[in-house]
Request: fold
Amino acid sequence: MLEEDFQRVLGGVRRGDESAFSRLYLDVHPPLLRYLTVLSPELAEDVASDCWLQVARGLDSFDGGERQFRAWLFTVARNKLTDRVRYEARRPTVAWDGTDDVGPAVRDVAEEVVEGEATRAALERLRALSPDQAEAVLLRVVAGLDYDEIARLTNRTTGSARVLVHRGLKTLARDFEQEAQPVPDHPDGPTGAGETSLV
Reply:
């Protein structure tokens, strides 16, 4: 988070300062992309791009601090994703051979973050939660939003948002604990009772 520098960076972005935009983008894009990737892996990149376009168009009318900016950004992203999912549901799909060859030749920094092994494992765990819990946990932990902001963004009460986050985190903690439990050795050795090893 940019904290004290946020207003200065935002002012630079509004004046067209590329380094200020780069700093803002590098600060908020990775969590935004992780959020979208959990909700819809196949649409995440496109929706993130659409989101940034809308943010760029509306930046002059934005008024607030860093927390409000993050809440606004994730609200735009959620709305863009909802619109895109609706659009994709109405649109026929056509298979096209060779889609693996399409894409950027150079990897994006945000893509490197998302592709990291630990990040990938965490995203898989989040996908195992109910969609509502996964979204609430992402908004709380990744986006850094408070319960009131999560409630407004997801059209829930603050108490409901808090419960979703709590249950999601509790499920994740239980999953981590189960994974951390050592697997007991078989009492008759690695080959089992009555079996002999050929080695």
User: Anything to note?
Assistant: The radius of gyration is 22 Å.
